[in-house]
Design goal:
About 6% of the residues have low confidence. By secondary structure, the protein is mostly beta strands. The chain contains 3 helices and 12 strands; from the N terminus they run αβββββαβββββββα.
Amino acid sequence: MRTLTTAADVARQRADASPVFLLKIDFTSPSAFTLRVSDRAVTALGEDWQPLVVSWGTVEQRLEDVRPGGPPGTFEVTLNNAAKVEVSRSVTKTRLSDLIRSVRNTSNAYEWAFAKATLYYLVDKRLGSGDELTLGVFYLEDPEEIGEDIVRVRMSDLALSIEDRLRGFAITNADFPNADPDAVGRIVPFVLGGPVKDVPGLGVVAGKTTKLSADLANPA
């Protein structure tokens, strides 16, 4: 059962209370970066939160202001892809999708899959750190939809995240641009225990040529 602090309980009863959801996304690969977003520009919990949430989607549908029990297993949010995103005081991205790491986009860009996302709720944005409710800790999937104006992101709780990981890593042209066409879409085998014989390999680099460092000896 989630309980409010005394200050939050008092604030909730005010006529001018301004409740707000806050989403913190912690990226770790290839380096650490924390993105804090909400549906409005707000300073809360001692941090600035960028106004990038267009719709809280299933968060609003499945969570009440104060709800007992656990968070939903999954939820989606729709983020603004037509607004600038501040990475640091010296670095600003033109749009949110510029933060999505790919073979051709590596500067100040991050791996989204399995990044940690923490969802908070404040019954009044003027409350301080410690008065928030942590509604859940989730893990991002790769964005479901990337358009000119929006990026739609789905995330799941730890149990579903582990399940997704155990399904294996798929070969894609984005991750392996020189992969054998027959290998694209296949799951990389993983081995538990050992020793194990006859584990198949997949060709993730194809069509490459190079020169020998020395002449081959003439076989007898």
